[in-house]
Amino acid sequence: MKIVIIGSGGRLGAALARALTGKFDVTGFNHDALDIGNIGEIHACLDRLKFDVLINAAGLTDVDLCEKEPDRAFRINTEAPQVLARVCRDKNARLIHFSTDYVFDGEKREPYTEDDVAKPISIYGASKRAGEESVLGVQDRHLIVRVSWVFGPDRPSFIDGVIRRAMETEEIEAVADKFSLPTYTMDIAEMLPRLFDSNVPGGILHFCNSGECSWQSYAQHALDCCHKFGVNVKAKTVAPVKMENMKNFVARRPVYSVLSTEKYKKLAGGAPRPWRDAVADYIKSHYSKT
Asked: How far apart are CA 123 and CA 264, in angstroms?
């Protein structure tokens, strides 16, 4: 099976490329090789290739930057996925496009299912939702995978920022009244080949590690793991802060955007592993020297 990965230099794309290479015939395009913000480059790079599955792990994911540059956000997160979807349709290939929990407004207060109505409250969320609609509007065999709080070894994320600050100071704080779920790139990479099967229906699928947490509890668990595995950090506790006090935020964030993985559990025959286990695995593997 021939697989193309767009965004193979990013946090998710790099993990996918590493995990799938050797198991499949993989061709990766990082940002230097293919900037999907330049629509013409898409055809120049892909029209000549033959492939069975195209994975789009690229996008403009800086939530506040999207608010400042909406045209760029919609070009990358909406227009480009539609072009990719058309290329895949013409090649009789499946597109697997990654989206986000930020398509929801956060008002539900219980895990969002794939059937819940998307009501984004930011340019980022709106551009990603429009991208979902543009992909599925081209062909219903294409697949949207929504993930949340993605972390992994290839690019720093929230958890790495927490650990870095904890190495420098004893004073750490994080938002305590915003809830979602971390998603480990290595777990996404392990799960994804199940979706290559043409018998798996297209549409929308949620995938994240199991459970529920705030940024504060996520950060606190990371520190607890650091101490457990001998990572040299100064901080021991994470102080709570309210989201309303985050004056540096430009875009609105959903307060509650936990994704339900019930649909995935039925597909795979089991739930993704708990987020605490995934975080512990990451810290032990990539920070601990023992």
From this structure: 28
Residue 141 has pLDDT above 70, yes or no: yes
Angle at CA 206, nearest 5°, toward 225 and 269?
85
pLDDT digits (tens, 9 = 90+) for 144-171: 999 999 999 999 999 999 999 999 999 9
290 falls in which pLDDT band (50, 70, 90)? low
Overall domain count for the chain:
1
Residue 239 region, left (φ>0) first, then alpha (ψ -120 to 50), else beta? beta
Q: What is the pLDDT of residues 62-75, one digit of tens each?
A: 999 999 999 999 99
In a domain, 290, yes or no: no
Alpha-carbon dihedral sign for residues 71, 72, 78, 80: positive
**pTM exceeding 0.85:** yes
The question of whether 256 is a catalytic residue gets the answer: no
Name the active-site residue from 102, 124, 218, 287: 124
Specify whether the backbone of 7 is left (phi greater than 0), alpha (psi in -120 to 50) or beta. Answer: left
- d(C-alpha 30, C-alpha 122), whole Å: 27
Cα–Cα distance for residue pair 112/118, rounded to 1 Å: 9
For residue 62, tell me if it sits in a domain.
Answer: yes
- Residue 11 to residue 133: CA distance in whole angstroms: 24
